[in-house]
Input
Amino acid sequence: MATVGIVMGSTSDWEVMKEAAQVCKDFGISYEARALSAHRTPAELEEWMEEMEKSGCKAFIAGAGGAAHLAGVAAAKTLLPVFGVPIPSKYLKGLDSLLAMVQMPKGIPVPTLAIGEAGAGNAGLSVVAMLAVFDPEMRKKLVDFRAKQAKKVAEAKLPEL
Ligand code: RP5
Output
């Protein structure tokens, strides 16, 4: 059983999507990551999502590039939240992926993060924040993470001229 399902349209998306997996790992959240496509393997995607949901998954993170319908299709198949991560694409640099996710018509939402690694990491942190609402231990971890991050930024030195 995994708490988070991380899905991406292709194994080529892993370089970006591993940031989401890393956040899950850092916060002690179990995850299962799969490369499954909305158009190349629609049946397998549906089957995997059903299995994940049955075994207690609480949220999905979906990353795809180009005409990135994966997150929208995934959101249509579940009542669980699906966070979208636009993957940088070859010609349009991920703007196409971003618009495909963020411009979902009203009714099936895809909360969409930034293009690329920052978005993948923030998708992981969004799941953390969601779980922290009901889990005091997770909340404590998030408080510690924020404090550590703030300290690092506040103590950073600018280079001398
Ligand atoms: C999308 O097409 C994937 O999410 C990936 O970002 C993009 C390119 O896929 P590959 O041609 O590298 O398999 O479906």
